[in-house]
C-alpha cells in the first residue's frame, strides 16, 4: 500500500466521482463503483473482477471492520487508502463503512442467456427505476431465479442504485439487454410459456400451473404491459388485492409472484 490520498482533487478520487455520477463514464471506462464491505465481497465472490479497492481507515475502524483487510490484502488488485474527506467525496452512502471498489463491468448479452439454457426467467419491459431493478435482482436471486432479461430498458445496470439495492447480488445472475423483438423471439424459439402479470387479468396467480419453461413478464412501472406483449403472452395472471390500491410496486409484484412460484415448485418436489 502507498501513502494515503488526502487531496480532494486527486485524479483517482475524481474518477470515482465520475463513475458514480455518469452513465456515460461507466460505459466508456467499462468500470463501475461498489460500496460497502458486504456488497464488495458479494461481487468478488460472484467471480467479478475488482480493479481497485479503496478504504478509509478511520471509517473502517468506526464500523468495526479492521480485521476484514486480511480477506483482500493478498488478492490481485490495488489496495488504496483514502483520507476521510476524499473518501466521503467519492462515497454515495449516508453511513459509509470505509470500503469502496472500482469493478470491471461485463457484457449483458443475449448470447450468454442462450448458452446458459434457463428453465425459468424474468422479463422486465421498459423498466425505468434503478432502485426497483436492483431490488428485483436481489429478490430473484433469493428465490433461485438466475436469469433476467431487460426489454428496451432505459436503466444502466451498473447504476449505483442498482448496485446498492441488489446488495451486490447483481453479479450472481445472468442479465441480458435486448429489444422486445429479440427477447420475444428467444422465448418463442426456446418454447417458453410467457406469463404476463397484469392487474386486469381474470386468472389469479394462485391458480397458475407451473410449466417446465416459464418466463414471467412484467411491464413498466408507469404503464404496465403494452400491446406488444399483450398480443404475445400465453397467459395473464393477477395478484388478488383486498384494499383500494389499483396496483403494486413493480418489485413487490415480482416478489409476490416468485414467492408463489417457489411454493408450488417446492410442493411439486415433495
Q: Largest sheet, described in full?
A: 7 strands, parallel
Tally of extended strands?
Answer: 11
- What portion of the residues fall into strands of 2 or more residues? 15-25%
Low-confidence stretches: none
| Quaternary assembly | single chain
Q: Give the CATH class of the largest domain.
A: Alpha Beta
Q: At CATH's second level, what is the architecture of the largest domain?
A: 3-Layer(aba) Sandwich
Structural class: alpha/beta
What is the fold named in CATH at topology level of the largest domain?
Alpha/beta knot
* Arithmetic mean pLDDT: 90
Please explain how this structure is put together.
With 270 residues, the protein is α/β, with parallel strands linked by helices. It has two domains: 11-104, 60s Ribosomal Protein L30, Chain: A, CATH 3.30.1330.30; 110-269, Alpha/beta knot (3-Layer(aba) Sandwich), CATH 3.40.1280. The protein has helices at 11-21, 23-29, 37-45, 57-62, 69-72, 84-90, 110-116, 130-142, 160-166, 180-189, 227-230, 250-269, and strands at residues 31-35, 50-55, 78-81, 99-104, 120-125, 147-151, 174-178, 193-197, 203-204, 214-218, 235-238. β6 (147-151), α9 (160-166) and β7 (174-178) form a beta-alpha-beta unit. The longest helix has 20 residues, at 250-269.
Amino acid at each position: 500500500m502507498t501513502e494515503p490520498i488526502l487531496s480532494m482533487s486527486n485524479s483517482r478520487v475524481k474518477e470515482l466521482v465520475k463513475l458514480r455520477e455518469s452513465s456515460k463514464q461507466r460505459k466508456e471506462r467499462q468500470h463501475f463503483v461498489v460500496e460497502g464491505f458486504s456488497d464488495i465481497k458479494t461481487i468478488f465472490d460472484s467471480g467479478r473482477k475488482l480493479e481497485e479497492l479503496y478504504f478509509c481507515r478511520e471509517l473502517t475502524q468506526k464500523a468495526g471492520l479492521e480485521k476484514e483487510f486480511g480477506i483482500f490484502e493478498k488478492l490481485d488488485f490495488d489496495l488504496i487508502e483514502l483520507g476521510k474527506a476524499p473518501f466521503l467525496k467519492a462515497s454515495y452512502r449516508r453511513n459509509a463503512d470505509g470500503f469502496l471498489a472500482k469493478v470491471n463491468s461485463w457484457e449483458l448479452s443475449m448470447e450468454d442467456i442462450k448458452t446458459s439454457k434457463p428453465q425459468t426467467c424474468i422479463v422486465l419491459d421498459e423498466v425505468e427505476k434503478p432502485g426497483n431493478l436492483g431490488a428485483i435482482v436481489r429478490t430473484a436471486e433469493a428465490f433461485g431465479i438466475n436469469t433476467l432479461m431487460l426489454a428496451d430498458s432505459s436503466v444502466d445496470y451498473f447504476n449505483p442504485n442498482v448496485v446498492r439495492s441488489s446488495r451486490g447480488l447483481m453479479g450472481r445472475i445472468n442479465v441480458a439487454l435486448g429489444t422486445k423483438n429479440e427477447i420475444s423471439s428467444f422465448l418463442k424459439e426456446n418454447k417458453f410459456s410467457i406469463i404476463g402479470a397484469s392487474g386486469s387479468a381474470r386468472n389469479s396467480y394462485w391458480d397458475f400451473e407451473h410449466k417446465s419453461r416459464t418466463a414471467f413478464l412484467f411491464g413498466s412501472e408507469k404503464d404496465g404491459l403494452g400491446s406488444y406483449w399483450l398480443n404475445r403472452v400465453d397467459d395473464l395472471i393477477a395478484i388478488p388485492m383486498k384494499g383500494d390500491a389499483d396496483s403494486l410496486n413493480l418489485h413487490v409484484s415480482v416478489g409476490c409472484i416468485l414467492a408463489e412460484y417457489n411454493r408450488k415448485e417446492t410442493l411439486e418436489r415433495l
